[in-house]
Design brief:
The chain folds into two domains: about 5-170 and about 350-365, Glycogen Phosphorylase B (Rossmann fold); about 180-350, Rossmann fold, CATH 3.40.50.2000. The protein has 14 helices and twelve strands. It has helices at about 15-30, 55-60, 75-85, 105-115, 155-160, 180-195, 215-225, 240-250, 265-270, 285-290, 300-310, 320-330, 335-350, 350-365, and strands at about 5-10, 35-40, 45-50, 90-95, 120-125, 145-150, 165-170, 205, 230, 255, 270-275, 295-300.
Length: about 375
């Protein structure tokens, strides 16, 4: 019988960075010979455990999150449900649930259930990266039986400062399928028609959820400055809905707010990718943009600097003149050289193969391979 790896988190199956990266890990575990199941608080999981879901307070009114759990869940009962859900797992991979206090009751229950058991904790967003969670010191949790993985060097070093040794495994990205120009143009037209964008419109796409740190105002300003339609792909979360509607109503450019989950379709339809975030645990869109040969403007957030140091040539979000010039001549030698460079850097450093090799070595060293 194959060994079973249970992936545990608040939620799976969405377009947020944790869900997207978790899927690449699940595929790797299956390649290694594991049977993979998901355990979470929402219906997208193979096993739904009530009480694991993101709390309303953490998601909708984050400034009110207290020291204790913001939702009314019986921790003992949750521990029993979680114990049952994980009873047949040989290894548990925890995606952020023991890292960030979006539901402290769930985190405490998981720490109790996994104590002394093989577990791999995949850390994306620690409490100290968000002001409203900075007072929480019990996470990330640790145990002698667990292994830890950070998604960047900054987080690896911060965990080390707190006595937690972690490996670095950067997010991995699939190589895009190479389509003919005709196929790509057809996909571009189809996606644009589906979301309400004309075939001749210049489009600045912003493939993120609408929350404060994604810096929606800067992305809208860029679209205004280059005469483009602003396309926001993700939903409003963390109480940002009212502010988002205000920004839309004041925008001096066409605004399209329409989700699209197919990555290839997003980049085929877009002319430029905006990513002016003030904070990210990683930031997948700039790497995806490189692989799909799209120009991208990236905010000055710390992990972005770490990624840029690999050799990426990204625009500053305020460089509207440079971006407009690139959009005016997308096939020019200078733009082609920029895209060639970014594609090479992404392929060499952030491939699925490189990620899987690192993960395989970690599991081998821990004695956890099937």
């Amino acid at each position: 019988m194959a060994k079973r790896a249970a992936f545990l988190s608040f939620r799976f199956g969405l377009t947020d960075g944790v869900s997207v990266v978790a899927r690449t890990w699940m595929e790797a575990f299956e390649e290694f010979g594991y049977e993979v199941i998901t355990v979470a608080g929402d219906a997208n999981a193979d096993r739904t455990v009530s009480g694991l879901e993101l709390s309303d307070a953490a998601e909708k009114a984050p400034e009110t999150v207290p020291d204790e759990s913001p939702i009314s869940v019986d921790e003992t009962a949750l521990t029993e449900r979680l114990t049952a859900a994980l009873s047949d797992a040989d290894l548990v991979v925890v995606e952020n649930l023991l890292t960030i206090p979006m539901n402290l009751t769930a985190s405490r229950a998981a720490a109790r259930v996994l104590a002394g058991r093989p577990a791999l904790l995949h850390h994306h967003d620690p409490p100290w990266h968000r002001e409203r969670f900075a007072h929480v010191t019990e996470l990330p949790a640790t145990d002698p039986s667990w292994r830890h993985v950070a998604i960047n060097r900054i987080l690896r070093d911060e965990l080390a400062d707190r006595g937690i040794a972690a490996a670095i495994i950067y997010n991995g990205f699939p190589t895009p399928v190479r389509r003919s120009r005709r196929e790509t143009e057809q996909l571009r037209r189809d996606v644009r028609r589906s979301v309400g964008i004309g075939s001749e419109e210049l489009v600045v796409a912003h493939p993120v959820r609408a929350i404060q740190r994604k810096n929606i105002p800067a992305a809208i300003r860029l679209a205004e400055a280059v005469g483009a339609t602003y396309w926001l792909l993700g939903p409003a979360e963390e109480g940002y809905g009212e502010e988002l509607q205000r920004l839309f109503s004041e925008a001096a450019c066409k605004v399209v707010h329409h989700e699209w989950t197919d990555v290839e379709g997003i980049y085929a339809a877009a002319d430029h990718i905006a990513f002016p975030s003030t904070w990210e645990g990683f930031g997948n869109p700039p790497i995806e943009a490189a692989l799909y040969r799209k120009t991208v403007s990236v905010g000055d957030y710390p992990v972005g600097k770490e990624l840029r140091a690999f050799g990426f040539d990204w625009f500053d979000p305020t460089d509207s003149h440079g971006i407009a010039a690139a959009l005016a001549e997308p096939d020019s030698p200078s733009v082609s050289a920029l895209l060639d460079n970014n594609e090479r850097v992404a392929s060499e450093n952030f491939s699925l193969g490189r990620m899987r090799n690192s993960l395989h070595q970690l599991l081998d060293n821990a004695g956890w391979l099937p």
